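Self-study notes.
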Amino acid sequence: MTYMTLSGLSLRDIEYIVAVDDLRNFSRAAERCGVSQAGLSEQVRKLEAFLNVQLFERTRRHVAPTPDGARIIHSARHVVAAARAMVEMARSLDGPLEGILRIGVIATLGPYYVPRLIPLIRKKYPQLQLQLTEGLTDRLLEKLAQTELDIVLAALPCDQTNLQSLPLFHEPFEAVFPKNHPLARKQRIDINSLRGDDLLLLEDGHCLRDQALSLCHSSGGENRRLATSLEMLWHMIGAGEGYSLIPKLALQHRTEWEGLIACLPLSEGGRQIGMVWRASDPRQQAFMEFGAFLRQHIPEGCQKVA
């Protein structure tokens, strides 16, 4: 058998084609990889020449893998994942968490939990270099599975296979109404009373949307008003468009809205926030210790979990 040299093949080039396939855009792929678009495009062309395969079909408005390219990129993902696993294994030999730690946080939690979390982590783990990513649950878990993230902070349960999770704390929901809403005069809200077409929701993809629909025994109706973020949802309530369920951490420091909005405790309802990581990651013990540290610092207004 003829020995095939790999001197013309670089791991960085393999990472480039995975990025182009993920984003279907050379400019955004170059931004993710931290190189110029011209440089990335040139390296992809060189890789195509080395492999003697056209990996992508390119037009001014369209980038997509060719059939042969799709098969090669599938293998490239395994190569990149194996390389990252090797780096993670080397890091784990040092004992405690060190180096870069890539944390994904769901969008309905990040802006309200992360600001109080960062100082604690920096003090406890000064050797860590944190890289934070915010997004929707499914996309963050996809990045985790593809080894683009190390840890995800999200609402549990997480039913995907090959992932480990650790509950951190319980975050209650509160019912938030415009001041003139009939239910705004109550002291406490029975969850069974929350029905009606004036329930405001986040757009599809937010796990908080599904939780609100379930608690309120409602459907997602085509004509229902939707918000792109928790902040916009808050503004829509203040404008008198309807009510919604909002997590406790997102309600703090809202004194400027006191004359427009009423926040009332619920008889029940909330979400369990947890830490998720790959079961194959060799840093299992270090992640468990990191999670135990987070469990020691429960945010105000939230409760311990078993």
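Second protein, same conventions, sequence then structure:
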Amino acid sequence: MTIQHATLRQLQIFTAAARNLSFARVAEQFGLTPGAVSFQIKQVEGHCSFPLFERVGRGVVLTEAGRDLLEHATLILQALDNADRRMQALKGVTGGNVTIGLVSTAKYIAPHMVSRFQAERPGVSIHLQDGNRREVNAMVAKGEVDLAIMGRPLDADELLAEPFARHPSIIICAPSHPLAQAPTLRLSDLADSDFIAREEGAGTRALTDAYFQGQGFSPHIVMTSSSNETIKQAVMAGIGVALLSRHTVNLELALGMLSELRVEGLPLMRSWYIAHRRSLPLLPVHAQLRSYLLERGQAIIDSLHAGHRALAPGT
């Protein structure tokens, strides 16, 4: 027997197991017992005549044969998924599922846009999957998500992206920071301040590095984090200042939990993009969501920020 005798279901189970490296998690995903998952994996190993996993301690890792099969199985499953999308598109289906990749900063605005879209199309189910800029770019390129809300894509050849809203970034500090009430500042005034930054690979980090390099400024970075929430809490705790998207901090600014440093040349203005893989046909519902964001995304963000400002003490 050869791997050609493996069923589609077996390839799906193997691929999930290879990515999760946990048979228990795969069992939960497919509604099977761990024993049933192990049986299906053994069937696939019998078809290809090689062990695909080896046990290391309490976990499993892929063998060389497993890594090779994963590469080919992913292409097979993706080709079948692309074919199914195309057939559905020809039917003109308007309901269904949409998987959206989000850079971590987008989670502060995307749910508000998605909720309004779903209010008009209650039959649509949305799944949100977040990561940093590099990770989301890879999700789109591999076809793991239908659409992505992100900054400018890293790979313009693989991805088709259009801007739909403004994306300002500012430097924030704790309200107790000595410069919090300064009417205007030059970046050089922050030479003695400690900075907190996003991790390498994040769009915000790339923006921060490019901005400081362009200004000939070397920030004293004392902490990095992959979480905007962690950075906000660290700033509130007085550990340092940070350059972040205004969308991540509007609520805290309105409530007086954070302050904006009024630095000359800020805010830095970027754009939000809605992106998808060039070679992947969009189902009607995907195209509808894309058009919805292009037409109404900025207005929804403006409305959200107006609501935050209304929460400010004394308003």
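Instructor comment on the second fold: The radius of gyration is 23 Å.
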